[in-house]
Design brief:
The chain is α/β, with parallel strands linked by helices. The chain contains 20 helices and 10 strands.
Length: 427
């Protein structure tokens, strides 16, 4: 094991990563009282280093994605593990976290941090930075191993963080997550500067910070595994009613919907709707101690769909909103010319990515590739202007537009020729 004297972190190499088993300063106590929170706020205010943060949730156990633990660390102050179930308002920490925030996969955590009253003054996302340096495995443990030569045990990543008291092993894991973020920030910052991609990263961080909070997709029940096997509108109606009933009950009792009744049971009931209590309870998941309490709720949901007028049943396929871009898997039969353009745009992004050592999805996100390729270019404009306008309307950042515009013009105006030349070069 090697020790870097600048920060005391153990050092390994890519062939033999060092397993990190505990935080350098031990496991800090959980902050779960107003007095302890005020003390943490005062100490954080004294710091001058960037602020590393992380959030632990109870997804898969409780309803929704509320935060149950927030980890905050400044290298010149220390680590604080804050129980946000006991202390749901952390706004008093704002003055003490007024330097750049370091998070990994900030899109996941920023909504939760806003929920507890904290907004970032500036951001460095170590996952985004890792992608821009060419790293192909983006989880925190994978990035720590590739950048720092350190291995993290991720046993508690999917634990029920609503449990109280939190076990010591979980707290050790939580403290380690933020302990390594500052060193990742330093290493990745240097690499971005060396690659002349610091401005790219800043555009990405700004994009993450300005992104609106995600909104639930319509008709989420259609995305259940196995829902595609239900071909009748009546069966789809049963699935919709059961999904909505399960969601309402799960919200009321604060339980993950999948723990109340598994998705497979909803699909099975929709394929052959039970006619009575006995046939419903023949499906094992509806006999669980919790689900069985709501047997009448499930039967009423099924009855609503079975007796509904035909016009009130859902269509076999989710309607496509006017002006929206369909999922790529349907393009081949919906619009073969658009599908050809999409293949050419994908090839262009891959070719550019190969040239700079990045994946095509980093060069231009798949949804932006689809947005660019779906409709023909406006014939009243030059191809260059039309492509530039469409990329600007998408979520593509300026650095991406600068890289892809020229190749995208060729791909969009002559996709068959572009694909032929791309294949020839690949050979």
């Amino acid at each position: 094991m090697l020790i870097d004297n600048r920060d005391g972190l153990p050092r390994g190499d890519s062939d033999s990563p060092v397993l990190v088993t505990g935080p350098r300063q031990g496991i800090p106590p959980v902050v779960d009282t107003p007095e302890a929170l005020a003390d943490a706020a005062a100490k954080l205010t004294e710091g001058r280093q960037p602020v590393a943060l992380d959030v632990e949730r109870a997804q898969g156990f409780r309803y929704g994605a509320d935060p149950f633990l927030v980890q905050v660390r400044r290298e010149d102050v220390g680590t604080f593990l804050i129980d946000t179930h006991a202390l749901p308002d952390l706004s008093m920490l704002a003055e003490g976290v007024d330097e750049v925030w370091i998070l990994h996969d900030a899109e996941q955590d920023l909504p939760n941090l806003a929920q507890v009253g904290l907004e970032p003054p500036a951001l460095f996302d170590t996952e985004v930075a890792a992608r821009l340096t060419g790293i192909t495995h983006f989880g925190l443990a994978a990035v720590c191993e590739q950048v720092l030569g350190l291995a993290l045990v991720k046993d508690h990543q999917a634990s029920d963080w609503s449990v109280r008291p939190l076990p010591p092993d979980w707290l050790r894991y939580a403290a380690l997550d933020v302990e390594l973020l500052t060193e990742l920030y330093r290493r990745l910052s240097h690499t971005l500067h060396d690659l002349d991609r610091w401005e790219w990263a800043q555009e990405e961080f700004d994009h993450v910070m300005s992104a609106p909070a995600p909104t639930p997709k319509p008709d989420r029940w259609r995305s259940l595994p196995g829902a595609g096997r239900i071909t009748s509108r009546r069966g789809l109606g049963v699935l919709r009613e059961l999904w909505e009933a399960r969601d309402a009950v799960a919200r009321e009792i604060d339980l993950s919907p999948g723990r109340l009744v598994r998705n497979a049971a909803l699909v099975r009931a929709a394929q052959q709707p039970p006619r009575n209590r006995r046939s419903l309870l023949s499906i094992g998941e509806f006999r669980s101690p919790v689900a069985r309490q709501y047997t009448d709720t499930w039967l009423r949901a099924i009855n609503r769909a079975v007796t509904a007028d035909e016009g009130d049943l859902p269509p076999r396929r989710m309607p496509v909103a006017p002006g929206s871009v369909p999922e790529a898997r349907h393009w081949a039969h919906l619009d073969p010319e658009a599908f050809l353009r999409l293949k050419a745009v994908r090839a262009a992004a891959a070719e550019i990515g190969d040239g700079v050592g990045l994946s095509s999805e980093v060069i231009l996100e798949p949804r932006d590739q689809r947005f660019l390729a779906w409709a023909p270019l406006d014939p009243s404009m030059t191809a260059l202007d039309a492509v530039a306008e469409r990329l600007e309307e998408s979520d593509a950042r300026p650095w991406q537009r600068a890289l892809v515009t020229e190749a995208a013009v060729e791909a969009m105006t002559a996709p068959a020729k572009f694909l032929e030349e791309h294949a020839r070069h690949a050979d």
